[in-house]
Amino acid sequence: SFAYPDAQGVFDQINKQFYVSPEVLTELTKAFLDEIALGLSEYNHAMAMIPTFVTGVPDGTETGTFLALDLGGTNLRVCEVVLNGDKTFNLVQNQYKVSEALKHGEATALFDYLADSVDAFLTTHATTDYTSLQSDPSAHTSDAVHLGLTFSFPVEQTALNSGKILTWTKGFSAKHAIGNDVVKLLQDAFNRKHMHVKCVALVNDTVGALLSRAYTSGGCFLGAIFGTGTNGAYLEDVDKIRKFAGSAAAANGGAMVVNTEWGAFNNSKSHLPVTPFDNAVDRLSINPGYQIFEKFISGMYLGEISRTVLLSLVDATPKSLLFKGKATPSLNQHYGLDTRFLSEIEAAWIDTGATKGSVELPPLGKPSFESELSDAAKAKLTAVRKVILGPHGLGYKSEDEVSLRDAAIVRWVCALVARRAALLSGVAVATTLIQTGRAVLPGQEGSKALRERNEKIGVGVDGSLVENYPNFNTILRESLRLLVGEDVEQRVNIGLAKDGSGVGAALCALQALKQG
Ligand code: ADP
């Protein structure tokens, strides 16, 4: 009964829409390099290429005890980080809830709350005894404990320890904050409470990932986030930051970490192979036309793109191609499908105990699909169906509602969307390798020096997507291999930047003290 004029044609077309050819990946890398150059030469470019005033990365020998405060994720986080100087660290942390009232009230109330949270943390969690530093007006300021602030909102940074808040995002809207220096807002709150805590560094979470991976692995040139959003920060030659021309930073020369804000790649021109599903997701998003690259790649959107494709199949005419034409409340709900679902589906598909390994499936549109399934394929699809029916699933109640073909279609859609994301993530990584002279595009002459280099190239990554989506890294590397060649790809060492925001902020605070 599945037979209909051209069911297979519908699947083939979606396949084609999501396919990114090697040629397109190469063109995207060139366009990415152009946008990097533009962002480095002028201010207010969509891909902002923000100089961070961090002039080097750690090598693992750093020591010291620092506090870190992280605002911008789901919770407020306070940590104490002890850097042992041997690539290891000890970290204790506590999380504090930021109420809706604080998010939307006066900025001073919000920052007072941040200071109170640090105070509470020092009393109840910190391993070092800070009692002499708390609320003691007679203590010397030189005794102050140093704190790094990870603030994951758009900021125009003007020094390691100052930056103007540009806008709120992620549901914050505290009044009288925009346009003010976030470090000063926090320091004023510490001072109001006579706390001897000094905020010495302002860090973006991406920079934190770079620094913490550099510390624990002994060197790293790129930090990249593939979580709710996507972004990257890498070490650039100050000479190439052309918008610095004439400034003190330019005169100092050397290197500086640049926060790319690469989620905004492609905002202005359309290089990316957009599908109608992407257009729908963008149009209904809170920021249509912005963060276009991010919308192809990150955790916030992959579930939503998949949901949009799945619904198109449920609604297909002249006859539904999925779930007998029946949607569920979660399928109908805007952002009703978490990217975690994609990870769970892929994990179920890959690993079903005895049936581990790859299997062949008949074409999805073939009328006799189910009767042609091998036992191994049936076992895998049954595992996929369990996820569809499971707690993070699509909200169907019984196996009768989800055929094995439905399961196969869902897995195919999720894998298609995630694979494209991982391939495009490879473009971002390849671009920074080329930008920093570590690689060249296929067909371009590599310098002899480049080919003869054989140092390891460190990349630190963080975020639920790269951590949890099975084979995200493998697919990213596939794209990298294609773009920069196997010899360079083999030397790229990609590792998780654990506790990036805490350790990164501590390392940045240390940098701030060193840089004076
Ligand atoms: P953030 O980027 O905000 O610091 P995370 O790195 O935890 O936070 O990313 C959260 C995002 O990751 C959300 O968009 C969520 O949908 C997605 N996510 C959560 N769990 C998983 C998972 N197991 N696999 C893939 N994505 C996930």
UniProtKB/TrEMBL annotation:
Keyword Cell cycle found: no
Highest taxon, organism lineage: Eukaryota
Zinc is among the record's keywords: no
Any GO BP: intracellular glucose homeostasis
Coiled coil, from the record: none
Family, as annotated: Belongs to the hexokinase family.
The protein's name in its UniProt record: Phosphotransferase
Organism, scientific name: Crucibulum laeve
Origin organism lineage: Eukaryota, Fungi, Dikarya, Basidiomycota, Agaricomycotina
